[in-house]
Amino acid sequence: MKKFMYFSAMNFSSKLVEKAVDEIAQLPGIGKRSALRLVLHLLGQPKKQTHQLSEALVNLVDNVHYCKNCHNISDTDLCEICTNPKRDPELICVVEDIRDVMAIENTAQFQGHYHVLGGKISPIDGIGPQNLNIDSLVEKVKNQTIKELIFATSSTIEGDTTNFYIFKQLEGLDVTITTIARGIAVGDELEYADEITLGRSIINRIPFETSLKR
After folding, report:
1. Closest to 188 (Cα-Cα) out of 152, 212, 214, 164
2. pLDDT at residue 186 tops 60
3. Contact at 8 Å (CB) between 171 and 192?
4. How many CA atoms lie within 13 A of 173 on its CB side?
5. Is 18 in contact with 7 (CB distance < 8 Å)?
6. I need a labelling partner for 193 at 20 to 30 A (CA). Which of 8, 20, 69, 96 fits?
7. Pairing between strand 148-151 and 176-179?
8. What local confidence, expressed as pLDDT, does residue 211 receive?
9. What is the spatial distance between Cα 2 and Cα 75, in angstroms, rounded to a whole number?
10. Which of 201, 126, 140, 212 has the alpha carbon at shortest distance from 169?
11. Is the per-residue pLDDT at 182 higher than 90?
12. Do domains 2-63 and 73-212 have the same CATH topology?
């Protein structure tokens, strides 16, 4: 209780420091104590270094794009993966978010393109199909030559629900739909899987319809 009262009544000799602490404390996993430690650390660094950090953050929010093709983060309208001629555009791995792209890329076992949904269907969180990049995926399959879609969403109820919804939207279209092998434990998020397990899951993928019968 004393600790809580101490931080709730924290006094600053500088309003600028207080403002910086308040802003940094909004970051996930950062409390007031950690935020204050970071601010004091920055004050102790050469001004040039702190200016470079602030410039990098401004450039991040002002200049980072989302790829028009796959919705991955990019410095340009199309990301480096989509513009790489060595990648197979007819093979698409469907993932929930950008961190999953990074996780799969770290395995070096996939040489196709991606489609980032931007989340997963979760009614309890107010996230429906209309909130995700599903329509653009369906249009891509309809209007481009896509041979295979690989579902690489998390092994959760929400992830499976998202896969099934997309599967139903694509019924009747000439595309093979597979899902990563369940080397990923049920209930696990993709980004936390080790690279070897995730890589094997990509290589040993199975038809999505087979996964429905399990």
Report:
1. 152
2. no
3. no
4. 22
5. no
6. 69
7. parallel
8. 61
9. 47
10. 140
11. no
12. no
Average pLDDT value for residue range 97-118 = 93
Residue 30 burial (CB < 10 Å; 0-12/13-18/19+)?
middle
CA distances from 166 to 66, 72, 120, 136, 163 (A): 21, 19, 11, 11, 5
Provide Rg for the chain, Cα atoms. Answer: 22
Q: What percent of the chain has pLDDT over 70?
A: 81
Q: Give the strand pairing for 73-74 and 65-66.
A: antiparallel
CA 190 vs. chain centroid, Å, equals 10
- Note the pLDDT of residue 149: 95
How far, in Å, are 23, 49, 50, 177 from residue 46 at the CA level? 21, 6, 7, 54
pLDDT at 154: 85
The domain locations on the chain are 2-63, 73-212
Alpha-carbon distance of 214 to 210, in angstroms, equals 7
| Both tokens assigned to 117 | 């949904």
| CATH superfamily ID and name for 2-63 | RecR Domain 1 (1.10.8.420)
